[in-house]
Amino acid sequence: MKNFQRQLVLALLVATAGGPAHATLITIDAANYTVGTDISTVAPGVTLSTFTNVGDVVGRFDPVFIQENPFGTDLEPRAFGHADLPGPSDVPWNFHNMRGGAQPCLQDGSCDPDVFSRFYALYASFSLPTDYVSVNVHYNQFGYDGSLLRAFDSFGNVLSTCRVWGSSQDRNPQSGLFPDLDSPDCGAIQRRYDCDQANNCASDYTAFISLPASDIAYVLWGSDNSDSTGASISSLQFRSVPEPATFGLLAIGGLMAAFTRRKRATC
Known about the structure:
The protein has helices at residues 2-17, 98-108, 244-266, and strands spanning 24-29, 46-52, 60-62, 65-68, 78-81, 120-130, 132-140, 147-152, 158-164, 187-195, 201-210, 216-223, 231-240.
């Protein structure tokens, strides 16, 4: 019995001190929902919001809805979007002015649309910090602005940025192809400037941020500046990593049950 008790104590220490395990990739894919669906809380562990300074209350968090995808429709027929359309340049699938408007509003409270251009940014907040986030992005030939996926810790510090180039930024005139992402470690190209018979062209990227530790509390995604980016986003994926204590409690419960059964058997 004493030997078993020592084994139990050692197992409890390992269970409570061990790192997280069984990490799960969770994907929110617009193709799985009908147009008009509110996807703000459809997946466990993340809340999606439209962060905007448009309207009576600036710096607010609105829901995220499924919209028709105008680009890359053969790959993804639907996209993430918002419902509030106050101006002629705003379209429901467009998240824009992330760096020049959304980030200073979120970090410094500089949200006044009369001073900073109006913005709509996709905001994804995780219930537990994660180490991996990715988005699928679609462009057409008129997508002049680049878009940014930017990760923050719980204190609002920028951890990492992945940029997707727009069609006007360093495009190769010889090949008609979009350039690579600015970092080879933050994305993959699904399709490069593919044109149909009507000369409607599209490019599709997967942009991701992967860190060595689970420090990402939230991410922002949108175009670099205040102009329409001409890009849509069709999915978001992140790694859900349960807290070590969760596994510790499960292990403790199983070990205590085994100990109780053993004790009863020896009585």
